[in-house]
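Handout, tutorial session.
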Amino acid sequence: PSFAVAGTVCALMGKFEDAKRLGYIGRKLTERFDNPYIDSMTYVLYYGSVHSLFYPYSECIDGFKEAQIFGAHTGNIFMACTAAVATMSSLMFLGSGRWDSLLSRTVRVRDELIMYNNDTLLPLIRAYRQYALNLTGRNPNGPIKLEGEEIPDLAAFLMRGGLTPYAQRITVFLSMTLAYLFGDLNQARQDALRNCKGWKKDISMHYALLMPFFRGLVWCRLFHRHGVSAYKRRARGELQILQGFIEVGLANRKMIALILEAE
């Protein structure tokens, strides 16, 4: 997995061609050496931080599923659980599959995390399931706030001990997208400001592209409503982040930059 790790680091540093080259070497080496325990880590890193930069997210899902199988069969439970959560993330943001199927999958993954006593990833899958419940109209409290069956109190959830910074950032991001989609601009603004802080520290490149995009949409809507020039400047700043990714090799993600530019 050393090449996949190196590829991930290069991606986080913005050296995308190096990331592609090193990550691909790591992925190809899994075909030469039969070690499914190690392969589960390589697959998660490669498909989560490298492959997703240059190819459709839909192509990553099969890689995550294989990583989950490798990990489960060889006892690499943490990587199996990580791959399961990555699969859920990709399916939800792609809108792939029936929501009933996605919800049942989140329950299955949640129960597996509980069985394996994986407190690191459990909060993240709870956040994903609450997000799915909101989007499918199955939250009796309404769709706007990321609170309900899985997250009774969002503020308490974010403050809980043991919640990793990664899970915290993803949860805030999910809350922001719901608030944006359903028109709670005050909540969306608070979440966008919070999401700006340290968002690139340990976020996979999958989210490094989505976060500035959605933050930009929030700033655009706030500007259209209030006419405050600071919101326009923030929106332009998010667009520049996306354009910067494209200029250094991520032409595959030009579409989301164009959408934000149109807004």
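The second record follows below. Compare its token runs with those of the first.
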Amino acid sequence: REQIEQLSSPVFCGRAGLAILRSRASAMAESVVVGVRVRPFNEREINLKATVCIDMQGPTTIITGPTGIPQTFAFDQSFWSHDDYITEESGYCSPRPGGRYADQRYVFDTFGQRVLDNAWTGYHCCLFAYGQTGAGKSYSMVGYGANKGIVPISCEEIFKRVNSNTDREKRFEIQVSMVEIYNETVQDLFIPFDQRPKNGFQIRESKALGIYVDGIVKNAVDSYSAIERAIDQGTANRSVGSTQMNATSSRAHTVITIEFKQVEKFGGVENVKVSNINLIDLAGSEKAAQTGATGDRLKEGSAINKS
């Protein structure tokens, strides 16, 4: 994760049944906000007859261990997504009437929206998910089916804002890149696997650009459908594998960077404001004894925990 910290500053995290969201905003607002999310039991936990040891009340998370003594932790937001939901015909999971279920839209409105607000004012910002393998990080960040996560909703919202602009003196330029850190090497997910450099891409720093990955592809996009196709292409190239704890475990850290440029004319002079929005899905930390990892899976797990 040291390499990811070089690329950005903020966060979205989790462990065990929790997924913690962190985002860094402007110094004028909050610098770092942290949220934690609990998901429903998966098939493995149901078969183990697991019981719920977590409760949430507003921003407070309460964990009651084997001793029966509750421990209380305060975050900026605690998202209860364990139960209290209904599955609509479209497949979308929404809260029951009067229920406390935090759906995908609510999570975005709470954290993703403030990231976009700060990007619009010209700040670099970041949101990332961290936690144990199977905690639900990819679900919160990317989502599945009708339950879109923070990444696709953010992309949709960006172009809603762009398309609502009525100022003829103002235009927007948007580029997207997508990389993963797999076994301690940085790879471009927009480049086919057999065409990637064996030793990956280098992270560099300059006074003009700050910290960047040298040589990666940046796709210019002009609509939500264009950015959706680009991210779908990169997602299809992600490194995933099956373990005993997660059938579709991410085996690499994934960084989606949306370069958002606002060009505005004042008195015939163009002023450019550039913001980088970093949306990061970290591979889950894991214990080999619990995942049953051997061979390549064990090597990947070691690299995940190391980075």
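Points raised in discussion: Residues 285 and 305 are 6 Å apart (CA to CA).
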